[in-house]
Amino acid sequence: MILYIIIFFSTAISIYFSVVFIISLWRGCSKSEAASIIHRFVKGTQPYHLCEDPSFISEAWDSIRVIIGDKSYSDLEELSKTIQLLFSGYASGLPYVAFTVIVDDENVKTRLESVLCSLAEKYLTIHNIYPHVLADWKEHDILHYPVLMIRYSENDDQSKLIERIVRLNNSVISSRHQSLTDDDEGDISE
Question: 20 to 30 A Cα–Cα from 146, which one of 2, 98, 100, 131?
């Protein structure tokens, strides 16, 4: 009887690690991420998406209303009856949520970006997800209004991707600053 139990458990463990290996190959992810996919499947839980969190969406639109003003916000409400203003999906391998806004002033855009990114990071932290985000400004295809796209991560591989993008952006900025400093030194010696 004990022999059958040992054989059963060793077979079950072998099957589990085989499935983890197959999922890691199929999805192109790490073994730990494949194991978490299996755990989410067994538990019946889905990954957290910002666009599906009513608290985040409500707080984001409230922040947008405060920043852009009631008149622009009421125009957005009117437009939302006929045209989609909130988008979600995947871009460059990362999930995103995007808000269409009526803004002409760059200072207001900067403020919106700061507030909404901080809000997204807050909700990601609450759900124990890597709290860093990437923000990009796009243009609405139909309205030609600015759209703030906030990309974030759902898993370890996407977190590493965001870290690489941030490091790359930082190195580009540093090299640009370094070349300006080198040019300035050359001017001084002449």
Answer: 131
